[in-house]
Amino acid sequence: GRSSLGGVLTSSLGEYIGVMRVTVAYFVMYYAFILTQAFNRLNVIRRKKKAEKEGRKAGPVSEDKGQMRWDRTVGNTLEQQGPFLWGLWLNALFVGPGTAEALGWAYVACRLYYPLVYPSVSGSRVLLWTSTFPNYWAILGLWGQLLYRAAGH
């Protein structure tokens, strides 16, 4: 016969505390990114207005290197939010919370690293890959285990 499903079908809610913590940490990080993006934008606008008052040329806010860093950090985080959170919780429920929690923490840690390695003026993306590729692998791990389980293993 078929093996019994892991996760919520055979476990107590207490086993999901780790996955809940990952989820809370993710949203704290996400909103910190959004607030940083907003405050950075206000600062760039303030500097732009000051420069214009002093007769200096100021480029568009969207071309400010710091603003680009936070716009892409928020954008990339949002782009991967659905696959990550759905994968995290479906994996925890139907495969088991242990691996979901471990992959979740790895994802959050690498996502936190993203704004620190976002390309500066040099434009090199090599360091950025140290954040994005592990994130993709974590998502692939979450969904791969789900597909394996769905195939009856």
Automatic annotation (TrEMBL):
The chain crosses the membrane at residues 20-40, 88-114, 126-148. Pfam families: MAPEG. GO terms for cellular component: membrane. It is found in: Membrane. Keywords: Membrane, Transmembrane, Transmembrane helix. Gene3D superfamilies: Membrane associated eicosanoid/glutathione metabolism-like domain (1.20.120.550). This is Uncharacterized protein. It comes from Hemiselmis tepida. The lineage of its organism: Eukaryota, Cryptophyceae, Cryptomonadales, Hemiselmidaceae, Hemiselmis.
